[in-house]
Design goal:
Length: 297
């Protein structure tokens, strides 16, 4: 697996992030709400990401972000489909126009709120006219990392008996993440925004992978608890893993995970040990039951 820092593929990352934002916003418009934004998540496919089936009118459609031959594709139950490529030098505004026309051509016009969410800019898609570099090889490297993360997170969370969000692409923050819930209500303060008040309304631990950003250049795995942790936390016995009190998160850089003899096992262990530490600190009820080994061999 090839490593790449955020700064090495920044513009390509922005292009992909913006495309997933458009995909997620379509689901936001059309899908029935679920707790913790479960209705807007994206899933991985063998060659990219998908909305999954989105009901609309008498039928429905699916939007695919493909990274084998980079492009967007919409497929309708009516048999209509449309697509466009991701190209070097295209702007977010260009992609937004093509995305809108693609949905129309597939027979499913869906107006979306055109302002990116949880990103570095609040300019609407149509106003982002600066050309972006697009490196197809870098995009595929990122996708390979996402699939590696998805596999490790799936194995880590597979035996959890409680409510959980399976590994999915959270398009707001552009991370591949799974979430385990304790079942304890824990509403976010009323002065929070709608994103926070929906996402943070019960006790959970989030386990994810993200490709880095303007503040953190290295792709990394993270573990974040809600309610947010305070003070120091016990270490995790995985080389390179650490706890950052300033962000209240555990981290394991992808580079350090790949140095392990078994990188997959290292990520699973990182998640498991961090989970044990968080559950002990926050006194999770029924933790022993949630983590009791399954009878299926």
């Amino acid at each position: 697996m090839h490593l790449q820092t955020y700064s090495q593929w920044r513009e390509t990352c922005i292009a992909l992030h913006m495309m997933t934002q458009m995909m997620g916003k379509v689901k936001l418009e059309l899908m029935e709400p679920q707790p913790e934004w479960g209705h807007v998540l994206l899933d991985a496919t063998p060659d990219g990401f998908t909305t999954g089936f989105v009901p609309h009118g008498a039928g429905g459609f699916e939007i695919q972000l493909r990274l084998d031959e980079p492009g967007m594709r919409a497929v309708s139950t009516s048999g209509q489909e449309a697509c466009f490529p991701l190209e070097d030098g295209a702007s977010v505004a260009d992609y937004y126009e093509r995305f809108t026309l693609m949905l129309e051509a597939a027979g499913h016009t869906v107006p979306i709120y055109p302002v990116p969410q949880e990103m570095f800019t609040h300019e609407p898609f149509y106003a982002l006219t600066e050309p972006l570099a697009f490196d197809a090889q870098a995009a595929r490297r990122y996708f390979e990392q996402c699939l590696f993360a998805r596999g490790a997170l799936t194995d880590f969370s597979s035996g959890f008996r409680g409510k959980k969000t399976p590994p999915s692409l959270f398009w707001g923050t552009f991370d591949m993440t799974c979430v385990l819930f304790s079942g304890k209500p824990c509403p976010f303060p009323a002065d929070g925004g709608i994103v926070e008040r929906v996402a943070f309304d019960e006790q959970f631990v989030e386990f994810g992978f993200w490709p880095g950003d303007e503040q953190a250049d290295d792709p990394a795995f993270f573990v974040l608890a809600y309610p947010f942790l305070e003070g120091p936390m016990p270490d995790v016995a995985v080389p390179g893993a650490y706890y950052d009190p300033s962000s209240a998160e555990y981290f394991l850089k992808l580079e350090d995970a790949l140095r392990a003899d078994d990188p997959h096992a290292a990520v699973v262990r990182f998640c498991r040990e961090a989970f044990v530490n968080v559950a002990a600190r926050q006194r999770w009820e029924r933790f022993d039951w949630f983590t009791r080994p399954l009878l299926v061999p």
